[in-house]
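Case study 2.
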Amino acid sequence: MLKDRKTRDSVESFVEQWLGTRELGRNIKPDRESNRYTNELEWAIKQEPVLFFQYLLTENRPLLDLLDANYTFLDSKLVRHYRLSISGTKQQLMRYDLPEDSHRGGLLGMAGVLTVTSLPHRTSPVLRGKWVKETLLGSPPPPPPPNVPQLDDKQNAAAPQTIRELLEQHRQNPVCASCHDSIDPIGFGLESYDLLGRWRTEEAGKPIDAKGELPDGTKFDGPQELKQVLLARKDEFVRHLTTKMLGYALGRGLTFEDQCTVDEIVKKVQEGEYRSQLLIAEIVCSMPFRYRASDGTK
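Prediction:
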């Protein structure tokens, strides 16, 4: 049943809604000329996470593959975009094992996610950090306080600064630091990716600094170590994913009463080694799903 076309459409709808990649080409439009951003590339980077998630379900892969995996879905355009040493790629997206030095694997290495969390002309550690907290861990930061000054990213041609340097100046304001201290370090861990998710080692003529330290003292350097930080919090991730998928299946936001169902599903998924089909089965068998209110259609 998971291989049915209707399921494929539902997966695409859920993934694009959950990850925010639906906005690519709509409200999020990277500068095309300076970044060689084409319609074909946009289609490929939107489809990569969809096909990945579909494969995860049909093959009953662990949900933790979403945080780190040694495979993804690529076509010839994405292989060139990622600068991967993979030969024989086709024009359609297919599953490929990733080289060890690919800097890919899981959602954080996908161009669609990295593009939707960037600005049209540069990366945004703030948006990326917020996305990880909100989309993967279900702990969105509070809204910014009123009258907080915007980041001034106008560059001095004689002495250009990295986005990290500009944000560190911004955080000197205690009002700004109150939120940014929990967001920016996560985004700094992804600064080795440019605004379209291509790997880079320099910005503004300086080496990329991808080190981060969370308020609890957890330190990491670069996306691979950031993935390990997230894997250490895998139950937060699985709980939030369960919440999102149950809400999608019910077609409504969850209530306080639904949290007991979420707890039960997460416990079963943990006991079942985080297998993806178990999550689907538990949602379908849950009381809110079986007794959901009818919309009046047949």
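The first strand starts at residue 71 and ends at 74.
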